[in-house]
Amino acid sequence: MEIIKASGEKEAFSTKKLATTMREAGASKRLINETISLVKSKIKQNTTTEEILNITLKNLKKESGVAEKYNLKRAIMNLGPTGFPFEEFIAEILRNYGYKATTDAKLKGKVIYQEVDVIAEKDKKFMIECKYHNEPGTDTRLQPAMYTYARFLDLAQYKFDQPWLITNTKCTSDALGYARGVNLKITSWNFPKEESLLRLITSKNLYPVTILFLTNEIKEKLIMNKIVLLKTLIEKDLKELYKRTNIPIKELEKIQNKAREILA
Q1: Ranges under pLDDT 70 in the chain
Q2: Taking CA 131 as the corner, what is the angle to CA 199 and CA 236, rounded to the nearest 5 degrees?
Q3: Which residues of 163-195 are buried (b: 16+ CB within 10 A; e: fewer)?
Q4: How many domains does the chain have?
Q5: Which terminus has fewer CB within 10 Å in the chain: N or C?
Q6: What is the pTM of this model?
C-alpha cells in the first residue's frame, strides 16, 4: 500500500519504520503493536503521512510522554513562523554539548554587514547558519549551503575555523556534495547519523517546550522569554516564571510537572 508524504511523493507504507519511531519515543511493545494494528485498520491507498501521524499520536497518549516525544519533528516546526526561536534552540543545544554559543551577531564583511545566526566555540570557532523550515516535506537545498560558505569567506577577518549549516529538515544530495567539497559542516534532521539534530536532541533530552501540547499563546510567552528547552523550564522558580510570562501559577505548575514526566 502506498501513502503520500508531506512533499507529495508516494512511498510504501512500512510498519517497521512506524514501529522504530515509536520505540525511539519510548513506547512499550504492547502500545507499539496496538498502534500498528489501529493504523493498519484505518488507512487506505494514498492516505497521507499527516493522517497517519494524527492517528498514531492520539493512541500514543495512553503512555505518559510518548506522544510528545514522537511529535518532536513537528514540535520544532512549531517554534514559530520566524527562524529566531530555532536559532536560540540550536544555541542552547550546543551549550549543553560544551560550546560557548552566542546568537544574532552582526559582523562587518568586506563590503556589507553579515548577520550570523550563531557563533560557537569549543575545539574550533564556528560560523553557523540556521536554516529553519516550518512546513513538512521541505528539504534544505543547495542555495543555503552556498550562501553559508560565501558568508564564511566574506568574514575571513574574524578567523572562523569552519562554516556550519544546521537545519531541521533533510538536506538534498547536491547540498551535501557541495558541503563536502568546501569543508562546510552540516547538521540536518538525520545527518550525520551519530550527530544528527535528532540524535543531539534525544541523547541529552534537549526537547523544546513546543513538544508540550500547549496553546499557541502559552508557547509564544515561553519562547519570547527565551525559555526554549524543557530542561530550562523545570529549573525555573514558579514565581519568577509568572512574573516573566504572566501565565497563571497553577497552569505553570501543571506545565512543569508534565515536562518533568517527559524528561524522567
Answers
A1: none
A2: 60
A3: bbbbbbbbbeeebbebbeeeebbbbbbebeeee
A4: 3
A5: C
A6: 0.93
pLDDT tens digits for 103-135? 999 999 998 999 999 999 999 999 999 999 998
Cα–Cα distance for residue pair 161/33, rounded to 1 Å: 48
Residue numbers of the domain that contains 236: 207-263
Provide the pLDDT for residue 57: 96
pLDDT of residue 83: 81
Residues 191 and 217 in one domain: no
Cross-strand partners of 121: 100, 125
pLDDT of residue 1: 87
Cell 497553577 locates to 250
Round to whole Å and give the CA distance between 199 and 203. Answer: 6
For 126, the enclosing helix (H) or strand (E) is strand 125-131
Q: Quick check: is 73 in a domain?
A: no
* 133-153 per-position pLDDT tens digit: 998 889 999 999 999 999 999
Check residue 17 and give its pLDDT. Answer: 93
144 alpha-carbon distance from chain centroid: 18
**110 and 186 fall within a common domain:** yes
β partners of residue 188? 191
We report the CATH number of the domain holding residue 234 as 1.10.150.20
User: Could you please report the per-residue DSSP string of 84-109?
Assistant: HHHHHHHHHHHHTTT-EEEEEEEEE-
d(CA 197, CA 167): 8
Retrieve residue 217's grid coordinates.
499563546
